[in-house]
Structure formats: structure tokens, C-alpha cells
Write a structure and sequence with these properties.
Order of helices and strands: HEEEEEEEHHHHEHHHH
CATH architecture of one domain: 2-Layer Sandwich
CATH topology of one domain: Tetrahydropterin Synthase, Chain A
Strand order of the largest sheet: 3-2-5
Number of strands: 8
Shape: rod-shaped
Structural class: alpha+beta
Largest sheet: 3 strands, antiparallel
CATH superfamily of one domain: Band 7 domain
Number of helices: 9
CATH class of one domain: Alpha Beta
Helix content: 40-55%
């Protein structure tokens, strides 16, 4: 009796072991790729999958989306700027049989394809494009990687660039460029505002010029606004339109005397220029150097006196005689 019980126990253990080896339960997101004696039978699941012990082999495949972080890749952009870029990839298995038969370890293969594609695609882009057009680069990366993994039964759904690291010197240069761009925009906006304000002032001036009373009303309104603040001294110019009636009343309505123009004097002759002699008058002959000619007096005879005008006396001159004569 004891031997029979032991035999029954052994049979039950063998049956349980065979049942455990031949029955598999797969979840909804799992599929089974079955090989019988090394030959592919196909994919099965989800639910209960029956296998022949020792003859059939099964490979489980997960159909859920897998998130994979691409390690940071050192690259040089097209404009020779070194950068370090990392990204994230989302993919899933759409064909379990191909993912097992066509490639070994599809996860590692997809990771390597993503890294090499990231370096090649971003190396062809400029730094400005890398920073500003990430959506376009993400679409390009996703399309290229998906084409490479499609024969493996792997579908790449999304590729996103997470971070772009550039040198600190390039960051400072970009900051200066952004500051200069902001200043340029501010100046343009200020100029546009001044231009629009000038147009509005021009329109207002045309409206006010149609009625002179409008200018006086505007002036009085300005005085009312300024008079509310008494903490400062304000100097306002007085328009000439307000003073014109007073000026006309002071002049008596007559015409203003004209300003007397100063008489023009002949311009002085320049030094060193000779005046022209009148053509009608005869020109006298120049006197010789040394003055007018002098007549020499005749020599006096013996015993004669000179005239009193010559000697300076008032009595007439008498001829001089010899002293011996009486």
C-alpha cells in the first residue's frame, strides 16, 4: 500500500512538472515567439499558450513603448562650434517575430542607431539652427532612425533633443548678440512711436490752424492743467496772437515808420593806389629837383651900395666913392 501511494505521488509530480513546462500565461502587452525543434512556428498570445515540453521553446516580447536616453554626444556643428547634445528616444515593437529573428537584442541595436544618427544629423546643422529649430531636427532624427529600425519590427515614435551644451565663451558672445538685438528693436520701436506722434501732431496743427480761437482755448487749458501743481515754477511762452491786438492799438492803426537806411559812403581808396587825374585839365610840367630857378645878382661896382631892400635899411643906397675923394 505504501508503495502505491509513493508511485501516485511521483506520477502527480511528473504531471505537474510537465504541465508547468507546457503551459504559459501571457499578459495583454506580451507576445510569444515559439520555436519547435529550432523552426519558427509563429507568434502566440496573449493568454494561455500550450507548448510541447522539451520540443518547443518560447521567447517573450514586450509590446509596450520603451523610453531610452541617448547618452551625451560630442559633436561639431557646421559652423565649427563644439557642442554636447543628449536626447531621448521612444520606440516600441510592432512585429514580435522580426524583433526576435531579424536582430539580436533590438534594444541595444536601436540605441546604437540613435547615437550615430544624432551625431550625423546635428553635425550638419548650424548652432543657430540647433538652438532655434529643434522641432525640425527632431522630425528628421525620428524619420531617419525609424527607417533604420523598420526591418527589425521596431517603430520609433518620437525623438526629442533634451539639452545642448556649448562653451562658456560662446554663451557670453550669444548674450551680447541678444542684448544688441534687443537694443536695436527698442530704438526702432521708439522711432516708430516718434513718427506716429509727429503725424498726430501734424493733424492736430492742421485742425487748430483752421480756427485761431482753438489755439487760445488750448493755451488756456494748458494753463489750467499746470496751475494745479504749485510746487515748481513754470515759465510759459505767450503766443504773439494774444499780443497782436494790443500792438495794433498802440500804433494807432497807422503804418509803421519805415526804417531809415544809412547813407552809403564811398569806399576808401586802398593805400598805394594813385588817383586818376581829370582828362580835361592840363597837367603842369613837373618842377626840377631843387625848387625854382634862382637868378644870380650882378657883381657890384666899386663905390656902389646895394639897395636898402637888400640891406634891410630904409634909406636909399648911395654909390660908394673912394675915401680920398671929397
Amino acid at each position: 500500500m505504501t508503495a502505491v501511494v509513493v508511485a501516485v505521488v511521483i506520477v502527480l509530480a511528473v504531471v505537474l512538472a510537465v504541465a508547468g513546462a507546457s503551459i504559459r500565461v501571457l499578459r495583454e502587452y506580451e507576445r510569444a515567439v515559439v520555436f519547435r525543434l529550432g523552426r519558427l512556428i509563429g507568434g502566440k498570445g496573449p493568454g494561455i499558450v500550450l507548448l510541447i515540453p522539451i520540443i518547443d521553446r518560447m521567447v517573450r516580447v514586450d509590446l509596450r513603448t520603451i523610453t531610452f536616453d541617448i547618452p551625451p554626444q560630442d559633436l561639431i556643428t557646421r559652423d565649427n562650434v563644439p557642442a554636447k547634445v543628449n536626447a531621448v528616444t521612444y520606440f516600441r515593437v510592432v512585429d514580435p517575430v522580426k524583433s526576435v529573428v531579424e536582430v539580436e537584442r533590438y534594444r541595444a541595436a536601436t540605441s546604437q542607431i540613435a547615437q550615430t544618427t544624432l551625431r550625423s544629423v546635428l553635425g550638419k546643422a548650424d548652432l543657430d539652427m540647433l538652438l532655434s529649430e529643434r522641432e525640425r531636427l527632431n522630425e528628421s532624427l525620428q524619420q531617419i532612425i525609424d527607417e533604420q529600425t523598420d526591418p527589425w519590427g521596431v517603430k520609433v515614435t518620437t525623438v526629442e533633443i533634451k539639452d545642448v551644451g556649448i562653451p562658456s565663451g560662446m554663451q557670453r558672445a550669444m548674450a551680447r548678440q541678444a542684448e544688441a538685438e534687443r537694443e536695436r528693436r527698442a530704438k526702432i520701436i521708439n522711432a516708430e512711436g516718434e513718427y506716429q506722434a509727429a503725424e498726430r501732431l501734424f493733424d492736430a496743427a492742421e485742425i487748430i490752424s483752421g480756427n485761431p480761437a482753438a489755439l487760445q482755448l488750448r493755451y488756456l487749458q494748458t494753463l489750467l492743467e499746470v496751475s494745479s501743481n504749485q510746487s515748481s515754477t513754470i515759465v510759459l511762452p505767450v503766443p504773439t496772437d494774444l499780443l497782436r491786438p494790443l500792438m495794433e492799438a498802440g500804433d494807432g492803426g497807422g503804418e509803421r515808420p519805415r526804417r531809415r537806411e544809412p547813407e552809403r559812403r564811398p569806399e576808401p581808396e586802398r593805400l598805394g593806389t594813385a588817383r586818376e587825374a581829370p582828362r580835361d585839365l592840363p597837367v603842369p610840367d613837373p618842377e626840377p629837383l631843387g625848387g625854382p630857378e634862382r637868378t644870380e645878382p650882378e657883381p657890384l661896382r666899386r663905390g656902389e651900395r646895394t639897395e636898402p631892400e637888400a640891406l634891410g635899411r630904409g634909406e636909399p643906397a648911395e654909390p660908394l666913392g673912394h675915401p680920398d675923394e671929397t
